[in-house]
């Protein structure tokens, strides 16, 4: 499950150089469900960066395994895909400590738009994330594939290298 991600000011500036923007007034830093955040979606033949609301009726994630069958998601996955740019995403370990997962490049989390809201698509965790959590966002490496008719190949070709970082470790006293 993805319940928080991070977009730095530098990451947003890089997006501004690469994509057309509809609005520059969007949040950076830690982004939580219920907030407006940047997404990238097609408009005509170009990709644009726009602010969108994270969470549809308190639903923040959609499972890759059921996205084509759930009534809430099945039309959106075919017609309204987006990506959520992030420098990192977070999960919490068994001791409720935040663990950051990032890469040496911008992460693009697979998502879908449902009206004015977006949800992040999740999958089974890979070997880096699985010691902390059983789910993780689907990561999109090639935006042109995600926004094409061949988008399903993204679900079987996860190759983005992730690293994990724990801000601190709290020793148990007893």
Automatic annotation (TrEMBL):
EC number: 3.4.-.-
GO-annotated biological processes: protein-DNA covalent cross-linking repair; proteolysis
Gene3D superfamilies per the UniProt record, alphabetical: SOS response associated peptidase-like
Entry keyword set: Covalent protein-DNA linkage, DNA damage, DNA-binding, Hydrolase, Lyase, Protease
Database matches in InterPro entries: SRAP (IPR003738), SRAP-like (IPR036590)
Entries under Pfam families matching the protein: SRAP
Domain of life of the native organism: Bacteria
Gene Ontology molecular function, alphabetical: lyase activity; peptidase activity; single-stranded DNA binding
Signal sequence range: none
Family: Belongs to the SOS response-associated peptidase family.
Name recorded for this polypeptide: Abasic site processing protein
Lineage summary: Bacteria, Bacillati, Bacillota, Erysipelotrichia, Erysipelotrichales
